[in-house]
Amino acid sequence: MSLLSSENIFLFSFALIIIAFLYSSVGHGGASGYLALMSIFAFPVSIMKPSALLLNLFVSSISFIFYYRKNYFKPKLFYPFAIASIPAAFIGGFITLDNAIYKIVLGIVLVFAALRLFGVFNFKEKEEVKINLPFALSIGFAIGLLSGMLGIGGGIILSPILLFLGWASVKESAAISSLFIFVNSTAGMLGFFLGEKTIPIESFYLVPIAVLGGMLGGFYGSGSFSNRTLKMVLGTVILMASIKLIFP
Description:
Blueprint: H1 6-25, H2 31-40, H3 45-69, H4 75-94, H5 99-117, H6 133-150, H7 155-165, H8 170-196, H9 201-205, H10 207-221, H11 228-246
């Protein structure tokens, strides 16, 4: 991993495993965490976006498998968001933002991700409410476009919306979000590849590390895992990264 000095490789790898573990445990791919980590270690923007999308593909699919096996996945809640988000994520992946604009927008999204980890958007489960199809489609499109442009999967945004509106339980929202992240990341990666014609080789070096954390997180998260202390630490790191991006 030529981007990192030998002494930083182990620190980065350990942090990457922890991030993949925590995000996978709640049905997320971890892109916001990966992007925050890469910004702290001064990765080039050209590598950050494709790397986050690629890692999302692996970690979110692992998380989905664990939640699916526990019968938490509800297809009728997934399809409305996916139908609108997939083409939007493809368009977003094709768009290359100016570096300064990218960092500011990403920084704002990371603030949201940090607050999510701090429990600000951990809404209590409500009695199940029937999904509003037009609203779900518009939400899916907006999240998909943002996901493709930034290199995130959108689950960090979708899951609290599902809980707030009473459309899914905590475990159901995790299952839906994990597959939502996978399809968005796939579309975003395809759009990025068609636009840039290549994927940095450095992105692939990170996959085995994230997969290890994702497998552990999916296994424990689909059960009854909850570690508030680790989430607080990760939230603080992401918040610091967001400040660094917005105010360089």
